[in-house]
Amino acid sequence: MKTFFHALGRTPAAPERALAAQGRAPVPADRTRAVPGQTPAAPGQTPAAPDQTPAAPGQTPVAPGRAPAARDRTPAAPGLAPVVPSLTPAAPGRIRSAWRAAHAPVPGVSRRMRLLALAVPSTVLPASLWRLPAAFDAGIGIGERAYIVFLSLFSEAVAFTAIGLVAPWGEVVPSWVPALRGRRIPPAAVLVPAALGATALTVLWTGLSLAIQLTGTTIRGDTLPADFPSEVGGWTAFSFYVCYAPLVLWGPFLGVLTVAYGRRRRDRP
Questions:
Q1: Distance from CA of residue 22 to its chain's centroid?
Q2: What is the predicted pLDDT for the residue at 8?
Q3: How far apart are CA 220 and CA 1, in angstroms?
Q4: 217: three-class secondary structure by DSSP
Q5: pLDDT band at residue 38, thresholds of 50, 70 and 90?
Q6: How deeply is 162 buried, as exposed, middle or buried, from its count of CB atoms within 10 A (0-12, 13-18, 19+)?
Q7: Tens of pLDDT along 45-100?
């Protein structure tokens, strides 16, 4: 009889009744004793392997054989999604802020004067760009290449100073200047160079350049050489006139801005 019960995977009924009489429940023969912290397996199923990594509070347990997820998220407040650290560099934001600070007008500047100040670098930019390809010609030396590049960059930097006639850094020393930061700039320190520059540019580009092109002669009175851009003809002459024509406005624009700057600084206590 015992052999029959063992073949069925069960114990005889007598020991079961004896255990019940003692107040203890019999343990089924086909169930494995559960490990603490592990769910008992159903009959006929293999118990789960105790190789799972304990999960942190609020984190989903990691399945066996899978690496735990990296904890690269900031814990969120209850009811809010976790915050992922931003990977966007801060450099573009700083450049944008510096650009706005350099072009922001001071109180009292009219919209017309602001547009006029922004137009001054635009009058120089076409000629600077037209000049740069000449630095890559095969027939010139390294000294001439450096001079052409320097002349283009220097011209644009000088033209950019016209914005200081409407911006705060034209009245107060910027914070990035050591030893002088925050100090008030005397009006004469701006008006004298601006007035001299406006006069020189007006004479050079508005006066002499127009006279040279109209008469076809140089300042000395000689005939323009055949390789001069305006004398070559075709696309070269057309691009030369288009890029250099705005320069005739550089001096007059700067003169108007200088006068407006002087009046604003005079009326402001």
A1: 80
A2: 45
A3: 135
A4: strand
A5: low
A6: buried
A7: 544 444 444 555 555 554 555 544 444 444 444 555 444 444 444 456 888 888 88
Q: Tokens standing for 29?
A: 């023969």
SS3 of 184, please? strand
Amino acid identity of 121? P
Single-letter code of the amino acid located at 13: A
* DSSP one-letter code for 81: P
Distances in whole angstroms, Cα of residue 207 to Cα of each of 3, 188, 201, 254: 125, 27, 9, 15
Give me the DSSP letters along 200-216.
Answer: HHIIIIIIIHHHHHHHT
Neighbour count for residue 181 (Cβ, 10 Å): 11
- Among 43, 4, 8, smallest CA distance to 27 is for 43
Q: Which two tokens stand for residue 43?
A: 């009959």
Cα separation, 171 vs 166, whole angstroms: 9
Handedness of CA 9, 12, 17, 20 (dihedral sign): negative
For 76, the token pair is 């969120």
- Residues belonging to the chain: 269
Mean pLDDT, residues 251-262: 96
- List, in sequence order, the alpha helices (H) in the chain: 2-7, 13-21, 91-103, 111-131, 142-160, 187-201, 209-215, 229-232, 234-244, 250-267
